[in-house]
Amino acid sequence: MKLQKELMKRKLVEYFAVKGHDNFGTPLYPPSVYDLPVRVPELFNRVEIVPCVDDIDTGMGTVTLSWKMFVLGTNLIELGKSTHIGESDVLRAVMGEPNVDLPAERVTSPKAVINFILKILSNSKTGFIELPENFQIPPEALTLPLLSKARSPRIAPTASGAFYSR
Q: How far is it, in rounded angstroms, from Cα 87 to Cα 92?
């Protein structure tokens, strides 16, 4: 169990290092971890990153998304909130290509995410699993978002250029 925990920790550290996090104590941009369950195959079906519409300002054409991470289905950590301008920016964030220059409420650091995942997986009998050597993530899951198109956010422009939810 300790070996699996150490291996998972190394994979998570590598994931965040590749994402450009030099200081693991600095809060992260919430949408930037949307691909975590795909980039670390051992977390596939164990970790889910969920964007939720928190606020829609039709006058300004902005959408605020709150980002939550669930580990083993019910264990939740808040990643923060991100604000997006226009339909294309919301879709880019949900598709895994966020504009990191936009405003965000950054509340969770890579260190907190790593510790949370390791704690939950360590406390569960099904937390750590050994994947077969030939394990591959299903090809349809490699296309973000990990949701079907029917469940993607629906944001449409109004005549004034503002946006609303259908």
A: 9
Q: Does some domain include residue 151?
A: no
Question: What phi, psi does 33 have (nearest 5°)?
Answer: -100, 10
Tell me which residue range forms the domain holding 123: 2-128
pTM (whole model) above 0.85: no
Other beta carbons within 10 angstroms of residue 66's beta carbon come to 17
Chain centroid, CA 94 distance in Å: 9
At residue 41, what is the residue type? P
Is 37 within a domain?
A: yes
Q: Who wins on pLDDT, 25 or 1? A: 25
- Residue 108, C-beta contacts closer than 8 angstroms, at least 6 positions apart: 27, 28, 30, 77, 78, 79, 80
Amino acid identity at 56? I
| pLDDT tier, 143 (very low <50, low <70, confident <90, very high otherwise) | low
Counting residues of the chain whose pLDDT is more than 90, the rounded percentage is 27
Res 86: pLDDT: 82
Q: Is the peptide bond before 145 cis (omega within 30 degrees of 0)?
A: yes
What's the DSSP call for residue 94?
H
Query: How sure is the predictor about 5, in pLDDT bands with cuts at 50, 70 and 90?
Result: confident
